[in-house]
Amino acid sequence: MDEDRLSLTQALQAAELAKSSWYYRSRPRPPRPLNPKLVAAIEAAWPGTRGVYGYRKVWFALRTGGLRVNKKAVLRHLRAMRRLQPRKIKGRRWTRPRVVRPTVSNVYWEMDLTYVWCGSRFGYLFAVIDACDKGIPGARLGDRCRAVEAVEALEEAVSTRFKGGRVPEGHRLILRIDRGSQFVARRFREAAKALGVTLEYAGIQCPEDKPYIESFFGHYKTEEVYRNAYVSLSEAQAGWKLYRVWYEAERVHQSLGYQTPQAVRHGALDLVLSKAQNGTV
Predict the structure, then answer these.
(1) Does 10 fall in a domain?
(2) Are residues 120 and 76 in the same domain?
(3) What value does the mean pLDDT take over residues 98-116?
(4) 79 and 194 part of one domain
(5) Coil, helix or strand for 135?
(6) Which residues does residue 139 pair with via DSSP β-bridges, in sequence order?
(7) Residue 137 — pLDDT band, cuts 50, 70, 90?
(8) What is the C-alpha separation between 166 and 20, in angstroms, rounded?
(9) What pairing do the DSSP bridges indicate for beta strands 138-142 and 108-117?
């Protein structure tokens, strides 16, 4: 058995590892003392910098004054002397929401805004998507991108899916949005509350937190917008209306088992009605 064992030298050679790496043990470094001459030079040059220079400009000022020193030494001394420039004070840290994969309609929606070139200016499309059936219950394409237009799209979505134009009591509908000015506006938040919609905000600069609406906008751009050269807003609106009808009734989705959003909704409704008739609901 001992003859089959490798020596440490042979094992390190096989692993292509140096002995110095094998025997290395990290040791904490003691703090390096500051150079009194450099500290005095920084203190003397500091009033001329008005306290706004970073370490590179302080280094340049010291070199101009005849002191030969490297930038890293200046940085280390400024850090120890607490003379570095203050960093930006970051605001509230938002936690990213969970990934939602709903199995029924009208429990989780996403909403966002995208731009549509209309020949001489942009049009702005607000759209709401149901993450389960991939339908677009509410949308608004116009020449303004205010909270007013966002509210109109949300009101259309709620009135399309719920009788009475409001989410029923006891039913929880989550709408995930980003922190755009339209969606954090008081008008939009109050309208969502009046409609019975629970708002959920995505993380900052995290478009992947709204994958369903981002995916829809990508399909809409490649399948409709980029294939047409609109010359006016009215032409873009007409194209949007036709695309929306086709998207709901004819366009199949792989994630829906190659069905259309309309077929998925009708199938779910038929299932609910059949259960109600059989007394299983």
Answers:
(1) no
(2) no
(3) 94
(4) no
(5) coil
(6) 127
(7) very high
(8) 73
(9) unpaired
Report how far Cα 261 is from the mean position of its chain's Cα atoms.
26
Q: For residue 197, which phi and psi values (nearest 5 degrees)?
A: -100, 135
Instruction: For residue 39, give its domain range.
Output: 34-85
Which is it for strands 173-177 and 138-142: parallel, antiparallel or unpaired? unpaired
The domain tally of the chain equals: 2
Neighbour-count burial of 96, counting CB atoms closer than 10 A to its CB (0-12 exposed, 13-18 middle, 19+ buried): exposed
Token code pair at residue 108? 């989780």
Angle of helix 233-249 versus helix 261-278 axis, rounded to 10: 40
Q: What is the pTM of this model?
A: 0.65
The pair phi, psi for residue 128, each rounded to 5°, is -115, 135
| E strand spans, the chain | 108-117, 122-130, 138-142, 173-177, 197-201
Whether residues 115 and 194 share a domain: the answer is yes
All residues at 6 or more sequence positions from 219 whose CB lies less than 8 Å from its CB, including other chains: 247
Would you say residue 64 lies in a domain?
Answer: yes
Longest dimension (CA), the chain: 94
CA 243 to CA 237: how far, in whole Å? 10
Same domain, 143 and 75: no
Domain of 260, CATH number, reads 3.30.420.10
Cα distance between residue 66 and residue 184, in whole Å: 55
> Which two structure tokens, joined as six digits, stand for 209?
């937190």
* Other CB atoms within 10 Å distance of the CB of residue 139: 18
Q: Is residue 153 part of a domain?
A: yes
Neighbours of 125 (CB within 10 A): 23
pLDDT in tens, 195-210: 999 999 998 878 889 9
Q: Are residues 81 and 114 in the same domain?
A: no
Task: Evaluate whether residue 136 is within a structural domain.
Answer: yes
Long-range contacts of 91-95 (CB under 8 A, 24+ apart): 94/201, 94/203, 94/204, 95/203
